[in-house]
Structure formats: structure tokens, C-alpha cells
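thread from #wetlab-drylab

HS: before we spend reagent money on co-crystallization trials with acetyl coenzyme *A, can we at least see a predicted complex? here's what I'd submit
DV: go for it
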Amino acid sequence: MNRETQICGLGFFVPDKVLTNDDLEKLVDTSDEWITTRTGIKKRHIVDGEACSDLALVATRNALRDASLTPRDLTHIIIATFTPDTYIPSAACVLQKKLGIKDIPCCDVDAACTGFIYALDLARGLCALYPEANVLVVASEVVTSRVNFNDRSTCVLFGDGAGAAILSNSAANGAVVEDILLKADGSLGELLSVKGGGSAYPLRFGQQADEDFFVQMQGRPVFKHAVRFMTNIAREILEKNNLSVEDVDLLIPHQANNRIIEAVAKKLGISPEKVFVNVQDYGNTSAASVPIALAEAREKGRISPGDRVLLVAFGGGFTWGAALLKF
Ligand code: ACO
């Protein structure tokens, strides 16, 4: 594996429309106090007609500008999402068309909330195979298209958004992808699912979508597994690279719930100042949460040249993963 594959451009985008906890109080039996104390979320951005590829397009343009590249410089497009515009064509193919380019390979990857880190590892593999590659990885989610706004236990948690990264072997001053670790355990899949419309639960012509068309989750066990798996994989990737938490300048965890983030940080023994949190502004944007946080952390000056950043995520499947970046 080429140890010098770098992220040479980052960008993110969230839709303009904002849904606050106060707005949700008018939709379901909940309160700002309950949502804030249980999750840390204050507001989330939601689409107003935009699809996955629309969010991806703006995030991509921002990442291309950051990398001083144009769409024609891209050699591959991977979109991490569980909410593509359509099943066919893939969101990556739709994005390619919107970027006004042709011929380069495009596909979607679904690893739920861990999707960005999964796609990053696939992109790293492409960079190893094709030394001249400029691989676009976008995690873009319209999670609200699969949220039941009658279910208070899930609808308060999620938001929409996109984050993009461009990987190449030739960048002068990008973030080196030092290592990535990925895991999955399909035997736990029932705890967090979106089943309706899949081939095991097909929608027949004229049939209405049921509850299983939307995110269904057993909150407490998901919480416990999220803390355990993210903590363990963070430890494992550090150990594998002969590093300790003292070598990490910033931890960027999946932004699902502030209590999960606090528990992971505490177990790892990493101080809160070294943990980036923006869940209060965006809610859980699934695969997009890590690249949005990464791009925003850098934009806000939380990452300096020479810093080591540890990404860690967890999602449905279950899937989980970690990545070490050196800026
Ligand atoms: N407003 C008010 N009350 C609510 C709400 C709400 N929005 N939602 C649930 N409640 C009620 C429940 O009905 C229950 O009431 P009861 O005691 O009368 O039965 C009570 O609050 C407690 O419910 P719990 O589910 O036990 O609450 P908990 O403290 O576990 O918090 C939460 C729920 C926030 C969902 C938590 O379990 C959690 O964060 N789990 C992890 C979820 C997550 O992060 N998933 C994403 C990770 S993977 C991915 O990103 C796809």
C-alpha cells in the first residue's frame, strides 16, 4: 500500500433549511430539554427538495476548489450513502453528469454511518493501483428521506448534508492517510435497520410505505455498541501504528450523539479539547457526519500542519472503522 496517499482537498455542504428542537416540539411529543440532554443536538439542516447528488455537488465543488482541481482532473467517483437519489442510476453517476464529465468510473458504497471511512479505504486502494488517480470520495445523505417524522425516538436525531475529500498520490501538502481499519458484524444488523423497499421487503405496485421504510433503531443497545466498537477500534489502530492517544491532536468521531462521543473520549483518556463536536448544529448526518466534521474542523482552525487526526465511526450493519490522518 502506498503510504503517501493524501487527501488534497476537503469540502462540505449542508442545505439551508433548518429544523430546530422547537420545530420538532410542534411535530411530536418531545422537548428541547429532552433532545439536548439525551443527544446534545439543538438543530439540524434538512433538504427542501434537494437530493443526495445535489448536496454532493456543492461539497464536491468546495473540495475541488480546495485542491485547486477541476472536475476533468477526477479519475474516479465514489459516493458513500444509504440515501441515493435513485437505486439506478447510482448517485455517483448522477453526480458525474452534474459535474459535466464522462467516462470515469462511478459507484456508490453503503456502509451506513461508517460509509466515508469505508470509501476512503477503497479510494486508497485505487490510488495504490493507479498512481495518477484523483479519487473523489463524497459522503452525502438525505437521511430525512428515510426518517419517520411520527416517531419521536428517531426523528429528533438525524439531519442531511454532504462532505467530500479528494485523494491523490501527488499532492504537495495534503493530509497523508497513514492507516485505515474497517470492521463489520452482520449478526447485529437487526438493531438498526431500514428494510422497506429492499428486495427482502419489496414494495408492490400501489402499496403504501410502512414503518419499516424508515430508520428503525433500538437506541440503548446501539448506544452501547457504538461506544464499545469506536473505543476499541481507536485503540487498535493506534496500537497497530505504535502510537498512543498522546500522539493524537484531534479526534473526530461520528457525530450521532454527544453522550456517545463523551463516553468514547473518556474511555480513550483523551481530553475534551482534543475532540471535535458539531452534532449540536447538524444532528446525525450518517456517512456525511465525519467528512463534514473534518472539513469544518480544518475551516475553523482546529487542525494545523503537522497535526495527527483520528477519525472514528460506527453505523448500521453494524459497521465501524477508524482512520489516521497526518496533516
Ligand atoms: N422526546 C421525549 N421522549 C422521548 C423521545 C423524544 N424524542 N424519544 C424517546 N423518548 C422517551 C421514550 O419513549 C422513553 O419513555 P418511557 O421511559 O416512558 O418508555 C424514554 O424517553 C427513554 O427512552 P430511551 O430510548 O430509553 O432513552 P435513551 O436515554 O436511551 O436515549 C437515544 C435515546 C437518544 C436514542 C439513545 O438511546 C441513543 O442515542 N442511542 C444511540 C442512537 C444513535 O446514536 N444512533 C446512531 C448511531 S449509528 C448511526 O449513526 C446510524
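DV: Residues 152 and 245 are 37 Å apart (CA to CA).
HS: ok that's useful, forwarding to the group
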